[in-house]
Design a protein that fits this description.
The protein is of the alpha/beta class. It is built from six helices and six strands. It starts with 6 loop residues before the first strand and ends in an 11-residue tail after the last strand.
């Protein structure tokens, strides 16, 4: 397995692009709402890997057919600059739309959350493969410490989602650096 490190552009805007470029190791993630930055990155770094992260505030209430159309439209528009795309973000959090998602009150969600994610993502991948077979599909990263990659609730979320993960080309991971507790 090969790992690549990159940087996600700040969601709230860009004040110092030179810092962003320097920290990215020529691997960048940009929200689809900030897609105007993609040509700038490509111009500065012709061989950079640029991932477009589609942000959907409430994935669980949105039909995959409906969201796939938006993802496909964005992918086609940005195809001259990148073929890397992910269709969601941290689907295991309540803030992303699932009523059973992890929250401050419920840090370890029920296994059924990950079952729903798996079903929804399988359908998304099927639709995206059908319409944009040239795209490199990144499986959306989970927020960590919610029984996603270790058994904190009697299950491991990544294992529950194995079927959909294996159909993606890349498994994304969010690293949240924090002080060592011990």
């Amino acid at each position: 397995m090969r790992n690549r490190w990159g940087i996600h552009a700040p969601n709230a805007g860009f004040r110092r692009m030179d810092d962003f470029y320097a920290a990215g190791f020529q691997n960048y993630t940009v929200l689809h709402v900030n897609a105007d930055l993609v040509p700038l990155i490509r111009e500065k770094y012709p061989y950079a890997r640029i991932l477009i992260r589609m942000y959907l505030q409430n994935w669980y209430a949105t039909q995959p057919e409906e969201w796939a159309r938006a993802v496909i439209e964005n992918a086609e528009r940005l195809r001259p600059f990148t073929n890397e795309i992910t269709w969601a973000n941290e689907q295991n959090l309540d803030l992303e739309g699932h009523p059973q998602g992890a929250s401050m009150q419920q840090p370890v969600p029920p296994a059924s959350l990950y079952q729903d994610i798996d079903v929804w993502n399988l359908e998304m991948i099927r639709r995206l493969r059908e319409k944009i077979p040239w795209a490199r599909l990144h499986y959306p990263a989970f927020a960590n410490d919610h029984s996603d990659d270790k058994n904190q609730g009697g299950y491991v979320g990544l294992e529950i989602c194995r079927a959909s993960i294996e159909r993606a080309d890349v498994m994304d991971c969010h690293c949240y650096w924090r002080p060592d507790d011990g």
